[in-house]
């Protein structure tokens, strides 16, 4: 999916809802329903496809829908069909397998989940009068690998600090362009970027070309958007001054609320001693990211049923302690990241001091500093000093292959192997 599409999705709707609308638009604009009828696919089958994507549809009414069975595409006798594409029960579905194969290949990240082996042992079994897809008890380790792979991809790619700040900067540019950049929608009507999700004709025109159109535009109303996108092109990204983990479960504070608390953690007098500039909420960006196994703080394996070699038609649970003592004790963690929009050393040092002070006030876990080390009591006074600008070799997703930076002690950190390979390939 295009980057611009993804950002508009997250700004205004759920991914699955937009996919259902796009599916309906494709059927209508290409007049596909008569052709599908020729192949024996009627309205019930189309409803099944939509429910496979988004789950139960509130707008859909049918005689078989009850409080126990919310679907219209199939009766509960075929309940296992709803566990194939987007499994709402435990997250084991082909959607994950598809992007695992694609993204692990593109990023060079190992995919330890054996899809074909899982398919070999998959079996439909009746569980509490509902048919579920189950697998052999010995495959529980393979499933833990699947969810670990998901977590790894989110940590190293999808929610990597560099990927996220590029996404945030593009979002900021699109928001600033929203009132001045229009797409041609249905009936020749011009619609804003934020409205395109409700007009599929306009939405099909929302490609990554929008990025280039804003960059090449001479419209003065798009100047702010252009400047942000130009920074991305020049790799002048907002700098991540640090990240931390809340010591207690999140109080559901918004990012704006956290930003205000960070800025209010220091008074102007606290900065005068070090001759540091005073920052405002507009000078920083706060991002809160969660890493889990796809079901929040729950273990998804608790929602999977297994069968044994001796009893292939009896579904059972497999507890975590029956598998290994080395599995995760927690299945969700939250990271708070603070970025500084200004890249000069004094502003970065000031932002770090705000952040480390807020962390101590909130009793957060000691944050990692931008250089990769752990902050000590004097870290807020040394941030950014005698540190060479980091040079990253990145994948198309923004994931760093390696970096070189000067240590505060004058030493040199050892480069990752891939950094050495890049130097050999591009000696100049």
Quick take:
The protein has 16 helices and eleven strands. With 428 residues, it is α+β, with helices and mostly antiparallel strands.
Describe this structure as you would to a colleague.
A 4-stranded antiparallel β-sheet has the order 6-8-5-9, with helices on both faces. The protein has a 3-stranded mixed β-sheet with strand order 1-2-7. The protein has a two-stranded antiparallel sheet with strand order 3-4. 25% of the residues are buried. The protein is built from 16 helices and 11 strands. It is globular and about 75 Å long. By secondary structure, the protein is α+β, with helices and mostly antiparallel strands. Strand 3 and strand 4 form a beta hairpin. Helix 5 crosses helix 7 and helix 8 (161-177) packs antiparallel against helix 11 (223-233).
Structural key phrases:
single chain, 428 residues, alpha+beta, 16 helices
- Provide mean pLDDT, rounded: 85
Question: Whole-Å distance between the termini?
Answer: 35 Å
Number of separate helices = 16
Order of helices and strands: HHHHHHEEHHEEHHHEHHEEEHEHEEH
Uncertain stretches of 5 or more adjacent residues: 377-428
Overall outline: globular
- How large a portion of the residues is in β-strands, by DSSP E? 5-15%
Helix content range of the residues, please? 25-40%
